[in-house]
């Protein structure tokens, strides 16, 4: 019965397809429906096989459409309800196509596999369909910069894994929905990190139920709405918050005292409300960079001295807040202060700035106060001081500070040319920073809560340009250079920058290039430097596609019809052959599915790889999936190599960046270590340990897939390769976080794990410089039968310089072996010296120089100058003592990792740092800007499983 059944199916499909198509029938029909509703399509949208012929913006796995990314290509029309037929669709991005109008069809709620719905900067109207709440796999929901009206659907609260919720800049009304009984609400979104609701017409109270201790929110953006009532006290429960914007609403009442508990907040906006009561005390917000409480009705108060304790404050904006009295000179010596705006208050007496002000201070605006004296013996030419409207600026006074020189909110900047001779470009072409004439892709970057206010600082824009280029290159985008220009602060306090992106080695971008770059910016793949905070990109339609002229799409469609008609004549002759291919394919799919259900079905325990691995997590990927993630293992994605094999950068379907470690083809070397690492990583789950995403054991391949860590190794930062300048407070925190990771392995993992290769090359720093312990290829578990023993007898493996001498001599491995290695890392943090350099061993060097009777124990000549310049008194000495305890010759004399962690916590207390602040701002812990960090996986030590000294 097999042949007749499938022959009849093919005959039934023949009139519909016209040709034999490889793309799934329903998917093809859905795409044809979309085509019929859209104009200005990519010219290669033709024929009956979108997956096989590679339609621009369409990504498939086998015959199923998994993503549609069509950003900035000037699409127009409406989104057809037939979109629901794309049942395997995971990503839909139509951003920056203003011509896409009409309502978002409710049928979109039937896309059960959708993870990203992104339509930034389109022209959608009507209400947001409640059916969106049925998208249980949704991670990114960006509907901002449209014309949506009505209320926020309460059903969005049903989406369990939603990470990003951006509804800003629409015309939404009503209140924020909260769950009641069986009715869902946004308070159920405990996994969501971003609530971006600014620029709407939302009203009513901010519901207290929205905030709980379970909420993991980082950004709360409610600015420029019509919210009334008081700020709920429950907001103080969300300790993960980093950015709060409540400004430009109608909020009243006193600011809750417990907001002071939010020690991770970096940017705080509450200006332009009707707040009353005492000025809030923000003493414990020790990560605070930018605070604006202007234009509220707070009780009159003397200038709060606690402002001078906010060591990372860049911007103090307190216009019209009833502050009185003299300003303390200590305010102007805050090391990162850039802007002080205290207009329309009651500040009086003498303005004393002092000679020890920091060189970042650029603006002191004290207009319309009561200042009657200002000593000018010091040189204040580098800072603009405005005292217009004070008694000191009586009529006839012509001092510079009695005039307003310019509007600092509109500082100019344009990316400079890179030591090249600018060309005379033809019409419409623009010279790039590398002096190449081209047609760039352009748009506007809008930063909704930057943590700085000196918009004339060129270095901060240079860091943004650098970060953009690093991101484009890491994702293999065809970008030559970027240009930023025209920074401006708009009426809502957003920083806007014009962005131009230039194509690599050609005049134009092609369709795929624009779609991929647009998707990178719309789905937040690009992470700007921390100073810039949350952003949105609004791309312009690209008009200059290579080789595209008006009418080309029509010609290609006509050709498609001709080709289809010609091929149709052969279909009947090929039916039997197709049926046979279909049967073979079905058998192959069934076999592949069976293999996927048992990823270790071909594991050979007779080799030196040991028995079948026992895993407790981690996804099994097929070889074909890995090929797709790495663009067929392209050399441009290769980011490292070693004795074990190569490491590739990969991008999963959901946009997650991963590192893929691939063993050498046909080699059995490292099979046991491969098994060891996937077993161990599948068991460990700690934020200071690199996480396993998955693995591949398919077609003779051994590959590990783990999280991609952006800022490289600790070693690279200490040696200056990344350009990240780690100050003493950040080094302490890195030591603490690394210690916590190792302590977890020793005492909380089940079974306990001895890492056996703790070193600065195996400590990675993420985008917030949090430390993560990596590389478990040499690690040893303590079997249940040996957990009562004090050691594990094993061959010596590790890295010279970090290797425990007792373990080296006795071959008896204990947790104290990791403690010794950790002690060496502590000495590296102090000195930035490699463990062994030209015969000098850092442990011996420190011990020989040590003299506790002298300042800094006589170690200043070998300390890193960064440590010596900004350490808290007593903290370095305590750190040295702990490090030397860790590197005692006898393991029994060394502390446990639990004791080490507690010791570092006490040292941080001595240094005035909060060891429990585990989401600390990067700005409070390191100085400088990355020069373009060396890829963290381009280091052989992360790849090699060898136990030789070369590791």
TrEMBL record:
Residue positions binding ATP: 661
Membrane topology for this entry? Single-pass type I membrane protein
Predominant location of this chain?
membrane
> Protein kinase domain spans which residues?
633-908
Signal peptide residues are 1-21
Subcellular localization: Membrane
Q: Which InterPro entries is this protein grouped with?
A: Kinase-like_dom_sf, Leu-rich_rpt, LRR_dom_sf, Prot_kinase_dom, Protein_kinase_ATP_BS, Ser-Thr/Tyr_kinase_cat_dom, Ser/Thr_kinase_AS
The transmembrane residues are: 559-584
- E.C. designation(s): 2.7.11.1
Q: Where is the composition biased (Polar residues)?
A: 914-931, 941-951
- State one Pfam family annotation: LRR_1
- Provide this UniProt record's keywords sorted from A to Z: ATP-binding, Glycoprotein, Kinase, Leucine-rich repeat, Membrane, Nucleotide-binding, Receptor, Repeat, Serine/threonine-protein kinase, Signal, Transferase, Transmembrane, Transmembrane helix
Q: Which GO terms describe its cellular component?
A: membrane
> Does Ribosomal protein count among this protein's keywords?
no
Q: Region Disordered: start and end of each range? A: 912-951
Query: GO MF annotations for this entry?
Result: ATP binding; protein serine/threonine kinase activity
Q: What is the name of the protein in this document?
A: non-specific serine/threonine protein kinase
The organism is: Salvia divinorum (Maria pastora)
């Amino acid at each position: 019965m097999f042949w007749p059944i499938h022959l009849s199916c093919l005959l039934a499909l023949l009139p519909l397809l016209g040709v034999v198509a490889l793309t799934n029938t329903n998917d093809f029909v859905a795409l044809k429906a979309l085509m019929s509703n859209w104009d200005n399509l990519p010219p290669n949208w033709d024929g009956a096989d979108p997956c096989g012929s590679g339609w621009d913006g369409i990504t498939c796995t086998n015959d199923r459409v998994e993503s549609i990314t069509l950003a900035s290509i000037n699409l127009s029309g409406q989104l057809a309800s037939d979109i629901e037929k794309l049942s395997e669709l995971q990503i839909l991005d139509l951003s920056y196509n203003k011509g896409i109008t009409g309502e978002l069809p409710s049928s979109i709620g039937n896309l059960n596999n959708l993870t990203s719905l992104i339509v930034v900067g389109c022209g959608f109207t009507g209400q947001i369909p409640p059916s969106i709440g049925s998208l249980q796999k949704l991670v990114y929901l960006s509907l901002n910069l449209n014309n949506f009206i009505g209320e926020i659907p309460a059903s969005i609260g049903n989406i369990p894994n939603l990470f990003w919720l951006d509804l800003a800049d629409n015309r939404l009304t009503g209140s924020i929905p909260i769950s009641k009984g069986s009715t869902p609400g946004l308070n159920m979104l405990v996994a969501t990190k971003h609530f971006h609701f600014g620029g709407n017409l939302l009203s009513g109270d901010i519901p207290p139920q929205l905030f709980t201790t379970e909420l993991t929110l980082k950004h709360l953006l409610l600015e420029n709405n019509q919210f009334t009532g008081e700020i709920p006290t429950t907001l103080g429960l969300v300790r993960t918050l980093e950015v709060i914007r409540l400004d430009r609403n109608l909020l009243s009442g006193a600011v809750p005292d417990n907001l002071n508990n939010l020690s991770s907040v970096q940017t705080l906006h509450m200006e332009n409300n009707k707040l009353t009561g005492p000025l809030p005390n923000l003493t414990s917000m020790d990560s605070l960079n930018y605070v604006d409480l202007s234009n509220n009705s707070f009780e009159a108060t003397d200038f709060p001295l606690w402002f001078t304790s906010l060591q990372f404050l860049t911007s103090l904006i307190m216009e019209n807040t009833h502050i009185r009295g003299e300003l303390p000179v200590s305010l102007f010596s805050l090391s990162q202060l850039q802007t002080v705006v205290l207009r329309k208050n009651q500040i009086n007496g003498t303005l004393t700035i002092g000679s020890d002000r920091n060189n970042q201070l650029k603006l002191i605006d004290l207009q319309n106060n009561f200042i009657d004296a200002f000593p000018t013996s010091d040189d204040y030419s580098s800072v603009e001081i405005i005292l217009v409207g004070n008694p000191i600026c009586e009529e006839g006074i012509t001092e510079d500070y009695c005039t307003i020189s310019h509007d600092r909110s509109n500082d100019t900047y344009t990316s400079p040319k890179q030591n090249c001779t600018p060309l005379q470009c033809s019409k419409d072409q623009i010279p790039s920073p590398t002096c190449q004439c081209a047609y760039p892709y352009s748009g506007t970057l809008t930063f909704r809560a930057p943590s700085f206010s000196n918009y004339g600082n060129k270095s901060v824009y240079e860091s943004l340009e650098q970060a953009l280029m690093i991101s484009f290159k890491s994702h293999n985008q065809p970008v030559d250079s970027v240009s930023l220009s025209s920074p401006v602060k708009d009426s809502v306090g957003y920083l806007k920058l014009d962005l131009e992106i230039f194509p690599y080695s050609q005049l134009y971008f092609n369709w795929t290039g624009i779609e991929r770059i647009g998707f990178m910016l719309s789905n937040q793949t690009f992470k700007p430097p921390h100073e810039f905070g949350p952003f949105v990109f609004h791309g312009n339609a690209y008009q200059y596609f290579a080789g595209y002229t008006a009418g080309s799409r029509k010609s290609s469609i006509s050709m498609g019809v001709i080709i289809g008609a010609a091929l149709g004549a052969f279909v009947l002759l090929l039916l039997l052959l197709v049926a046979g291919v279909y049967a073979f394919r079905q058998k192959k799919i069934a076999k592949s599915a069976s293999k996927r259900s048992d990823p270790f079905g071909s594991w050979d325990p007779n080799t030196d790889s040991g028995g079948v691995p026992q895993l407790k997590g981690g996804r099994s990927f097929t070889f074909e999936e890995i090929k797709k993630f790495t663009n067929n293992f392209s050399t441009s994605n290769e980011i490292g190599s070693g004795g074990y094999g190569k490491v590739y950068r990969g991008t999963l379907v959901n946009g997650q960046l991963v590192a893929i470690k691939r063993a050498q083809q046909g080699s059995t070397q490292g099979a046991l270590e491969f098994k060891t690492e996937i077993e161990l990583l599948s068991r460990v789950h700690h934020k200071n340990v690199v996480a396993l995403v998955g693995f591949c054991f398919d077609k003779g391949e051994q590959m590990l897939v783990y999280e991609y860590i952006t800022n490289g190794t600790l070693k690279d930062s200490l040696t200056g390769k990344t350009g990240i300048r780690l100050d003493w407070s950040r080094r302490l925190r890195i030591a603490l976080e690394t210690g916590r990771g190792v302590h977890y392995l020793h005492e909380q993992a089940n079974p306990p794990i001895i890492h056996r290769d703790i070193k600065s090359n195996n400590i990675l720093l993420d985008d917030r410089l949090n430390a993560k312990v990596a590389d478990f290829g040499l690690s040893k578990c303590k079997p249940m039968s040996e957990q009562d023993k004090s050691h594990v007898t094993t061959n010596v493996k590790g890295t010279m310089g970090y290797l425990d001498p007792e373990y080296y001599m006795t071959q008896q491995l204990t947790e104290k072996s990791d403690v010794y290695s950790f002690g060496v890392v502590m000495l590296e943090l102090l000195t930035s010296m490699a463990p062994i350099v030209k015969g000098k061993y850092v442990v011996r060097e420190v011990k020989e120089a040590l003299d506790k009777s002298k300042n800094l124990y006589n170690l200043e000549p070998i300390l890193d100058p960064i440590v010596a310049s900004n350490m808290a008194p007593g903290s370095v000495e305590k750190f040295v003592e702990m490090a030397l305890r860790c590197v005692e010759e006898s393991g029994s004399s060394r502390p446990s990792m639990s004791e080490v962690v507690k010791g570092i916590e006490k040292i941080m207390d001595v240094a005035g740092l909060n060891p429990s602040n585990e989401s600390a701002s990067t700005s409070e812990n390191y100085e400088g800007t990355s020069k373009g960090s060396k890829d963290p996986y381009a280091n052989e030590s992360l790849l090699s499983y060898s136990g030789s000294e070369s590791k």
